[in-house]
């Protein structure tokens, strides 16, 4: 069984500021990106249809509505009442979708200050601020801190230039951050070659949607 390796990920091309202003956010369309002028929204649940803000000055690459719908359809009712960790949270759209579908609490982690401000604004707009924690730090630092206890669901949408953060997955498991029945979902570029899973994980599903792939991991019993 395999994951996908960061070495095959590609980098965003340099686009001058003037060209970015003329062509829209980042000046280029990449896998999972919205067309110019599009917006995000909550797909289902108590906040269904609520628009979500995206700070175009940040480096956030939002997950498309299609991928969000596919992800949460696969996860099903397991989201309800669970504790969710949204790493590389960006706009917070994944964790907010989980809250809308009945998750008990969500922790959002991102090291981009513009993204953190956007997450807080989106939580206020959807009414979920009291069921959330937003932290301005790297995913690695958060996992090492052991803050927030254990989680039932971890959602990761790392930069496509990073690929699969294998060491982060290992640290999540070794630090005791995952409950025995936890699920981990990682969105990666479909262009990445496969590698072996980190010890302790089992590949539950791997589904490709064009240029993006969703990888669903569970914990090996006794791992």
How would you describe this protein?
The protein has six helices and eleven strands. The protein has helices spanning 17-23, 65-75, 93-100, 113-126, 139-145, 166-174; strands at residues 2-4, 40-41, 51-52, 83-87, 105-110, 132-136, 151-156, 178-189, 194-196, 201-209, 212-219. The strands form three sheets. The protein has a seven-stranded mixed beta sheet, covered by helices on one side. It has a two-stranded antiparallel sheet with strand order 1-9. The model is unreliable at 1-38 (pLDDT under 50).
Helix and strand topology:
Elements: E1 2-4, H1 17-23, E2 40-41, E3 51-52, H2 65-75, E4 83-87, H3 93-100, E5 105-110, H4 113-126, E6 132-136, H5 139-145, E7 151-156, H6 166-174, E8 178-189, E9 194-196, E10 201-209, E11 212-219
Parallel strand pairs: 4-5, 4-7, 5-6, 7-8
Antiparallel strand pairs: 1-9, 2-3, 8-11, 10-11
Task: Note the run of SSEs as H and E.
Answer: EHEEHEHEHEHEHEEEE
Rg from Cα: 17 Å
Flag low-confidence runs.
Answer: 1-38
Instruction: Kindly report how far apart the N and C termini lie.
Output: 16 Å
Query: In which order are the strands of the major sheet placed?
Result: 6-5-4-7-8-11-10
Biggest β-sheet strands, sense, barrel: 7 strands, mixed
Q: How much helicity do the residues have?
A: 25-40%
**If you average the pLDDT, what whole number results?**
80
Number of strands: 11
* Broad structural category: alpha/beta
* Percent of sequence in beta strands: 25-35%
Shape: globular
The number of distinct helices, counting runs of at least 4 residues, comes to 6
């Amino acid at each position: 069984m395999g994951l996908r390796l960061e070495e095959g990920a590609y980098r965003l091309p340099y686009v001058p500021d003037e060209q970015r202003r003329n062509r829209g956010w980042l000046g280029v369309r990449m896998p999972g990106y919205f067309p110019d002028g599009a917006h995000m929204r909550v797909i289902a649940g108590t906040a269904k249809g609520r628009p979500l803000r995206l700070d175009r000055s940040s480096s956030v690459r939002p997950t498309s509505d299609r991928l969000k719908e596919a992800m949460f359809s696969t996860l099903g009712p397991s989201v309800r009442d669970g504790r969710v960790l949204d790493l590389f949270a960006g706009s917070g759209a994944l964790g907010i979708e989980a809250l809308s579908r009945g998750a008990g609490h969500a922790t959002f982690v991102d090291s981009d200050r513009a993204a953190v401000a956007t997450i807080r604004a989106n939580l206020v707009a959807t009414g979920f601020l009291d069921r959330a924690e937003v932290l301005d730090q790297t995913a690695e630092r958060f996992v090492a801190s052991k803050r927030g206890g254990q989680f039932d669901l971890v959602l990761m949408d790392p930069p496509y230039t990073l690929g699969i953060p294998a060491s982060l997955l290992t640290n999540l498991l070794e630090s005791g951050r995952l409950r025995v029945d936890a699920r981990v979902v990682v969105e990666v570029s479909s262009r990445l070659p496969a590698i072996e899973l980190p010890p302790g994980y089992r590949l539950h599903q791997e589904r490709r949607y064009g240029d993006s792939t969703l990888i669903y991991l569970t914990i090996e019993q006794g791992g």
